[in-house]
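=== RUN LOG ===
request id: a7f3
mode: sequence -> structure
chains: 1
length: 123
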Amino acid sequence: MRFSARLVLAAGLLAMPALAPGAAARELLMFERKGCTYCLKFDRDVAPIYEKTEEGRRAPLKRVDLSRGAPGGVVLASPVRFAPTFVLVDEGREVGRITGYASDEAFWGLLGAMTDGMAGGRP
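=== RESULT ===
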């Protein structure tokens, strides 16, 4: 299990667009699909505490039905094809992405890497 979490972490970091220095995210979009096993696993592992964390306060979670596409006013770097996909959005533009959910450890590591630049930015 440790190996797969590290693999997911490495793949996510490679696919992540570069963050602008001091970028402050406004929300974390979670593209999900009804019946998605990994979405349900995220709901058990992370969702109950997400809003109580510093990351959750800086980038509130907004759920999006994958079949409906991105919400109006959001510019994605590329189409979202898999559920779950987490897209970090700042002022309507994608600044980072996590495709898939393997474990809470991998999720928090990837999200931490994306939000590190938020520390000096807007709340």
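=== NOTES ===
Strands lie at 27-32, 61-65, 85-90, 93-99.
The CA atoms of residues 53 and 60 lie 10 Å apart.
=== END ===
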